Amino acid sequence: MKTKKKSKYTNYLYYLLISLLLALCAYLSCNNLIVLIGVFVVFLFYFLLRTQKSYTNITKRYQKIHFVYNFVNNVVTSISVYKNVDVSVDKTLENIDLTPYREIGDMSSMSGSDKLRYLTSYFSLPIYDTFMNIIDLYIENGGDILEMTEHLLAQLKDIEGESISVKTFDRSKSISIGILWIVALVIPVFIRFALSDFFASLCSSAIYVVGIAVIYLFLLLTIEMITSRISHQRIKGVDL
Asked: Are 56 and 82 in contact (CB under 8 A)?
């Protein structure tokens, strides 16, 4: 809980600093206090109300995918060793830090098989439902759990690999777009210091000042498009 709160407040600090930097950059681009205040307020509220919520949801999605991949693999391995579902689940959970997954709640009073069923509502993944069907079949009839889950584990590996690829692609794409925007925003600031007389004449034009404000509006729209795309990114086999 403390770790999550610390991360949340750290994000708030980042949002504040980024909003301040953008506002300062906007002011240096046009010498207009109204633009400075407007950019700071709009971006700060956007980051706090929109970005933080999206960041939390995206983080939870990848946490669930990574958790179910490790959890199912470890449970299957333990069952192959202990030949008992309850013991295997308890042994697996003993070695997992559940702090990041506090939404799961307290499962200490449940048996191992009950814990597996309880986690169905947390994961909400079709592949986990398939895993539970295999576990029920194993409890009723026994068998070789490794052979019974071979195809399922291969699917989980594919989902985990795709989630990593999607996350890496989204990050690299966002960084590339961010670099392009940094270059675009720095150009007016460069003109201020390199061509001071020309810059002064630009700032006296209302059209130029409005143009700077519009540029930052387009930046906000770009951030929203990226955030929306990442938030609704589809990963094969995952319905989150």
From this structure: no
Cα 101 off chain centre by: 14
pLDDT digits (tens, 9 = 90+) for 93-112: 888 777 667 777 777 778 88
Which distant-in-sequence residues (6+ apart) come within 8 Å of 132 by Cβ? 116, 117, 120
CA distances from 75 to 88, 96, 113, 116 (A): 6, 11, 11, 10
SS (H, E, C) the chain: CHHHHHHHHHHHHHHHHHHHHHHHHHHHHHCCHHHHHHHHHHHHHHHHHHHHHHHHHHHHHHHHHHHHHHHHHHHHHHHHHHCCHHHHHHHHHHCCCCHHHHHHCCCCCCCHHHHHHHHHHHHCCHHHHHHHHHHHHHHHHCCCHHHHCHHHHHHHHHHHHHHHHHHHHHHHHHHHHHHHHHHHHHHHHHHHHHCHHHHHHHHCCHHHHHHHHHHHHHHHHHHHHHHHHHHCCCCCCCCC
pLDDT tens-digit map of 182-223 = 999 999 999 888 888 888 888 889 999 999 999 999 999 999
Q: What is the pTM of this model?
A: 0.79
